[in-house]
From TrEMBL:
One of its GO terms (biological process) is entrainment of circadian clock. The lineage of its organism: Eukaryota, Viridiplantae, Streptophyta, Embryophyta, Tracheophyta. Residues 1-31 are annotated as: Disordered. Keywords: Biological rhythms, Nucleus. It comes from Microthlaspi erraticum. This is Protein EARLY FLOWERING 4 domain-containing protein. Belongs to the EARLY FLOWERING 4 family.
Length: 114
């Protein structure tokens, strides 16, 4: 599983932010980390939904198969959320990065999404 690698990367980002990270704005990195955690939460939920759909499908019970409709609809909505969240992350990171390169404070650029 990639979880250990993800955790190590997050820890390294947090440590860099605390140490000044080579001049980068620590608040920017904290915002990016928080946003990536939100994305990971949705992805974890999707993993659970996919498992439920698979279990329901394998049971071949009519009631379970009908439950899959709502599960797949939620999964579809979550995929749209993840696409939007990654798009926002890209925009926020680019704005913060280019603002920082130009001497502007980009720390507040990384917005949050529920």
């Amino acid at each position: 599983m990639k979880r250990n690698g993800e955790t190590k990367r997050r820890r390294n980002v947090a440590e860099e932010a605390e140490q000044g990270g080579g001049g980068e704005d620590p608040a920017m990195w904290e915002n990016l980390d928080r946003n990536f955690r939100q994305v990971q939460s949705v992805l974890d939920r999707n993993r659970s939904l996919i498992q439920q759909v698979n279990d329901n499908h394998q049971s071949r019970m009519a009631d379970n198969m009908s439950k899959n409709v709502a599960l797949i609809q939620e999964l579809n909505g979550n995929i749209s959320k993840v696409v939007s969240m990654y798009s926002d992350l890209n925009t926020n990171f680019s704005t913060a990065f280019h603002g920082e390169k130009n001497g502007h404070d980009g720390g507040g650029a990384a917005g949050t999404r529920a």
